[in-house]
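hiii, so i know i said id send this last week but things got crazy w the move. better late than never?? heres the sequnce for the chain we talked about at the cafe, plus the structure i predicted for it. fair warning i was half asleep when i ran it
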Amino acid sequence: MSWKWLPERFNSLGLRLGVSYSLIFGLVSVVGIFLLNIMISSYVMRGVDLRLIEEKRTIAHYAAFHDRHFVKGKFYDEAEARGTSRIFYNLFSTQGEQIASSDSSAWKDSVWDSNWLVLAESEGMVLTDLVLDDDRIRARVLSAYVGEKLILQITTSLKDEMAFLAKVRMASAILVLAMVMVGVGVGSVMAKKALAGLGTVNLAVKRLADGDLTERVTLTGTPNELARLGRTYNRMADRIEILVREMQEVNDNIAHDLRSPVTRIRGLAEMAATKGDFAESDMEIMGSIVEECDRQIHMINTMLEISETEAGLGEMTLGYMGVKELISKTKDLFFPLAEENDIRLETDSLENFTIQGDLRKIQRAFANLVENAIKYTLPGGRIFLSTTLKNDTIRILVTDTGIGISPEALPKVFDRFYRGDISRSMPGNGLGLSLAMAIAHAHDGTIEIESALNQGTTCSLCLPCPK
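okay and structure toks below
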């Protein structure tokens, strides 16, 4: 299974916006529910404290007007009615002597702090916590001075309250999970709404890059930023269409203004050489003029073809061809030249991948690579033509054992008219690789070069597999 889409997917602006919205929504939900839990817990504990204070008032009345036996009986009656494990009463003197208490069997392992009595005498009333059984079960203790040098302690278990708060926390966790899921959905909708129209602009830009200069976008019901982007794209496309049209006119003028005079000069020199009675030196000069005109015409044609190809102005006659056939035809074309220069031109058992495009232009680009390999390979050398398939890209390779390219010159080899120090003494105009790269780009491909000085060069014509 291919995972190539994962980096692109995780780098998606829509996904990142959706995740951001979901995280913000989830964070706000968690903080809100956390604060709500604190409020509920505080409210529950506040209710317990108010009940203890109210009960303290009633018990204090009994302790003030009745003897200890009555008070003790009242303690037992209240504890039995509400459950001895739920509430426990104690009445102490200010010296710490226990005067009366309810049934203590359920509370015998509990440890009360004697400082509570001191604090109750000095402050009047103290509310504290008491740990029961384990850290999860607690009790609330009210210690209060009730007059006549008596201190009342009422201890109530918080088991029911703790169970209630545990249910609240469980419900809160479920609510947080539900809200996070809702946040994911809301985030996705918000991200989709925020990016509405971006796909339309992207498609228009792609079509513009493919040469469709008439493509425009109409964005309705989209955010102002995207609407402005659409209007900016339309203005840009209008400007590009005007510039390309003007460039096409300039190219036509260049073709007429340069090629025509050079062609006339060539024709006049050739006619003079055939009809006139000139000395041999003059005939050589006229022959040189004809050759130089031919070279200039070829250079002008190549420049115009590069410009048209890069601008997408040239017509593309699409078709299909097997790579094996392309390499075989190119080998047959250059085999005599390679043999003349004592260079072995070889291929291996080629796999017949299929390429799509303007076959004449692809053949010309590949021929330029082979011609360069022959030009810069010394006698006795070897040129190897092969093909591979990697990541849905067909790579047609030309590997030679020639003079190589220096690291300083390698980034410049595709520049127009660039020629390295070694190649300046050889025939050429520095446009071959520029034309080959323009043709590759016109087919959504590229040319890659790996080279080491005096060790050889590998040129790869990379073309996408036909869809």
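btw Confidence is low (pLDDT under 50) at residues 1-6. thought thatd interest u
miss u guys!!
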